[in-house]
Design a protein that fits this description.
Elements: H1 3-25, H2 30-41, H3 53-72, H4 76-81, H5 83-107, H6 112-123, H7 127-136, H8 143-169, H9 177-212, H10 216-236, H11 241-253, H12 258-283, H13 286-291, H14 293-317, H15 322-331, H16 337-348, H17 354-376, H18 378-385, H19 387-405, E1 411-414, H20 418-429, E2 434-438, H21 441-449, E3 454-456, H22 462-467, E4 475-478, H23 483-496, E5 502-506, H24 512-517, E6 522-525, H25 526-541, H26 546-558, E7 585-590, H27 602-605, E8 613-619, E9 622-625, E10 638-643, H28 645-657
Parallel strand pairs: 1-2, 1-4, 2-3, 4-5, 5-6
Antiparallel strand pairs: 7-10, 8-9, 8-10
């Protein structure tokens, strides 16, 4: 790489790192941090980086991986299951937004082709920002959250036709637009069928062979080759390279290697997407913003107001409550990152002049900057603007309260999935009353039709728990695996009833201590309980007396699963990306003759200060579990340590070097 290009990349990365850290501290989306980094170091900002072809090429690679990820997450069954909202509400919102914004752009002098692009660009919302904020606020399963996700699903899908349309609009002006568009659609259909046939017949056998090699690098390079080849084929056919990346992702998403692909491609995608958004920021001309700021402010206001009003009105047509429809509109009112993808393509084919491009780009960026404020306070705004919305929520609480009054002194079950239903059945067999809270309306309807004591309600809300009889409940159970929600419920429960038993289900032991510290009476790690039961059955089949098996199980539970926590990870190249759930692990350290720990007592080493505990010591082929602090270590001993990777490394230094 030439020195200027290398120097530019270093500046871009440095600015991005600093601004991402700052925006994270301010709880703002990192998409905006990358855009601001581009504005800061770009040709119209500090001028540290000229408008280089290198950065533009990197931005195009970022767009390829953005569309590849979209294809990977594409799910036809999911679309069919949510078809009424996805295609009904989502389709109507995109169509009417395209018509309104496109007509407005044409009225103000933009060409027909450019107006179509602007209409499509402003109809989209930010999937990255909305999903992140909804998950943080535990609203992704609320009514407005589910409606918003459905509309975002259609918006992401509609990007693909626009990526086909833009090259057609930017074709030879002497030819008929409709003729060009028809020919492009024919080519698109042929390429689509060819790629899908190749993917269906060759892709799965190919990846069986690649996976059988058990070489992570080989697997990763094959994914990259497939993605870039599909992008090259569609570009060669006169279509968008992003379309090929989408098709490649969609084909791989139908195989059993989807999660492995997602894990391997994530680092490349995040880096290149960051550079893509940096390049978008470099496109923003601060001088143009200063010249045309009234137009930019008016466009931003039109985006926020029109999309909010439109989605609210459409929501009413789809029989939503006014408050829920308004909250959905507020959540989706901003512009989105796929709009930048369309803008990049439009600029490549010169469909927009500088004035229109700068006004729309700046307006979308500003609307995304305001998105966190609108999403975080959507409930407060809805209550202020729709007085009846509060009463509607109160009426929902009345239903919960009536159900709880019918079963006084009941057990409250938060979540009515499989675990919650099994627990409710066991309580029913013993004649113990229960009430379950769940956010799946279909599940609640079916269960209530069957006569089960289940009500629709968000257990993380204090008023819902109080309506369910928190102050007189015999116990509370959190049966779903969501640590953030569980901590929120525990805070409410412990504040109201410090003496009430609370049992929490979790997938593993990663958050066991946090949940215990937050007030859980018992935490049931599903994976450890499964291991315990499997071991019990095996011992029974081997003829071990039942009394000894029961004693083993009792000892493990009494010790809060400490004997089972952690495991030897090994060096499996195809092990999925580690999550926080598997950070703590077991690690063996052998003490050679000259190790500093030889001859010392375990208590003298203070290993607990490094965050590590000693699970066992093996000496002369004999393994002693849970050794006493007075155990004196000798050369040749093997210590089995339990802790996080960094703590294990520190503890090993203490044992070997002092």
């Amino acid at each position: 790489m030439d020195p200027i290009g290398f120097h530019s990349i270093l500046i871009l990365l440095g600015a991005a790192v600093v601004l991402v850290a700052l925006f994270r501290y301010l709880r703002l989306p990192q998409v905006l941090a990358f855009i601001c980094a581009g504005v800061l170091v770009g040709p119209t900002g500090m001028g540290w980086i000229p408008d280089l072809e290198t950065t533009r090429n990197l931005a195009e690679f970022g767009l390829v991986f953005l569309m590849f990820t979209l294809g990977l997450e594409f799910s036809l069954p999911r679309l069919v299951a949510m078809k009424q909202i996805v295609f009904g509400l989502g389709g109507a919102q995109v169509l009417l937004s395209c018509l309104f914004f496109g007509a407005a752009a044409w009225w103000f002098g933009v060409s027909v082709e450019g107006a179509i692009v602007i209409g499509g660009m402003l109809a989209l919302s930010s999937t990255a920002i909305v999903m992140k904020l909804l998950i943080e606020q535990l609203e992704q399963n609320s009514r407005h959250g589910r409606h918003a996700v459905s509309v975002l699903l259609f918006q992401d899908l509609v990007v693909v036709p626009f990526l086909i349309l833009i090259p057609a609009l930017g074709g030879d002006a002497r030819e008929s637009v409709w003729l060009t568009l028809g020919w492009v659609l024919v080519k698109s259909a042929l390429v689509l069928v060819a790629i899908m046939l190749v993917g269906r017949w060759l892709l799965r056998p190919l990846f069986h062979e690649v996976a059988a090699a058990r070489l992570r690098e080989f697997f990763m390079f094959t994914v990259l080759l497939l993605t870039l080849t599909a992008a090259w084929l569609t570009q060669t056919a006169g279509l968008s390279f992003a379309l090929g990346a989408f098709l490649a992702g969609m084909m791989l998403g139908e195989t059993e290697y989807r999660h492995q692909v997602e894990s391997d491609i994530l680092p490349f995608r995040d880096i290149l997407l960051g550079l893509f958004f940096v390049t978008v920021g470099m496109l923003l001309d601060l001088g143009a913003v200063q010249r045309w700021w009234p137009w930019i402010a008016a466009t931003m206001a039109a985006i926020l107001v029109f999309k909010t009003v439109l989605i609210t009105a459409l929501g009413k047509l789809f029989r939503m409550e006014t408050g829920v429809a308004l909250r959905t509109g507020l959540v989706l009112s901003q512009g989105g990152e796929f709009g930048f993808a369309l803008l990049l393509q439009a600029n490549q084919f010169r469909l927009l002049d500088e004035r229109a491009s700068q006004i729309v780009l700046a307006a979308v960026v500003l609307s995304m900057a305001l998105a966190p404020l609108l999403v975080r306070h959507n409930g407060w705004i809805a209550k202020r603007l729709v007085p009846g919305y509060s009463r509607a929520r109160v009426s929902g609480l009345e239903v919960i309260r009536a159900e709880a009054d019918a079963a006084r002194g009941c057990v409250i079950i938060c979540g009515y999935g499989r675990s919650g239903q099994n627990l409710a059945w066991m309580l029913e067999q013993e004649g113990a009353a229960s009430i379950a809270l769940d956010l799946d309306p279909v599940r609640v309807r079916d269960a209530r039709d069957a006569g089960k004591p289940v009500v629709y309600g968000d257990a993380t809300r204090r008023d819902v728990l109080e309506a369910a009889g928190l102050h007189r409940a015999r116990a509370l159970v959190i049966s779903f695996n969501d640590t953030a929600a569980a901590l929120k419920i525990l805070e409410t429960a412990r504040h109201a009833r410090p003496d009430m038993p609370v049992i929490v289900r979790t997938m593993d032991d990663a958050d066991l201590e946090r949940l215990k510290a937050a007030g859980a009476t018992e935490v049931v790690p599903e994976s450890l309980e499964g291991s315990l039961m499997m071991g019990s059955h095996m011992l029974l089949l081997l003829g071990v007396p039942v009394s000894r098996i029961v004693r083993h199980v009792r000892d493990v539970r009494r010790d809060r699963y400490r004997m089972l926590r952690g495991f030897f990870h090994g060096a499996d190249l195809f092990e999925e990306r580690e999550s926080a759930a598997y950070q703590e692990r077991l690690h063996s350290v052998s003490l050679p003759e000259g190790a500093r720990a030889v001859g010392k007592l375990l208590s003298e080493l203070h290993l607990e200060e490094t965050g590590v505990s000693v699970s066992a010591v093996r000496r002369g082929g004999i393994r002693g579990p849970m050794p006493a602090p007075e155990t004196r270590l000798a050369a040749g001993d093997v210590l089995v340590l339990y802790g996080a990777p960094e703590a294990l490394e520190e503890a090993e230094k203490v044992l070997l070097e002092g």
